[in-house]
Task: structure prediction
Amino acid sequence: MVYRMNIYVDGGCRGNGQPDAIGAAAAVFRYRGGRTQTWTRQLPDGFYDPPATNQRAEITAIILALNIALDKYEQLDYCPKVDVTIYSDSKYVVNCMTEWIYGWLQNDWKNSRGFEVVNRDLIEEANDLDDRLRELGRNTQADEACNDCMDEM
Result:
């Protein structure tokens, strides 16, 4: 039996990239019967951290979803195969998690122009969580997390 998890994510920012920008991320877990559960997270205020941006909000939403998937798995009374699908409307975050990450890992977190990858801190965190799901040996679609959003665009 496969335990399927469908998580829908979005992130947003007001004042994108400005010192006083505010941002938030949301993840909605859809249960089999159609019932949903929502989680939200505010982005840091930018005083000690980078200012909030739309991209940081979208990646934070992925982190939120991956944490939810791990938490849900740990709450199960048994150890089924797990099929996690994360739906996002952000081409940026989909590409980060399914394509670009592999090159960045090989190039010591440098982009194609040789510069440090923007939002590396959050992308690394998301990748580490994704790796944790894969280490369970039970997630059949961790490599494809976020791909389904392309059908929605």
Summary: The chain has one domain: 2-146. DSSP finds four helices and four strands in the chain. The radius of gyration is 16 Å.
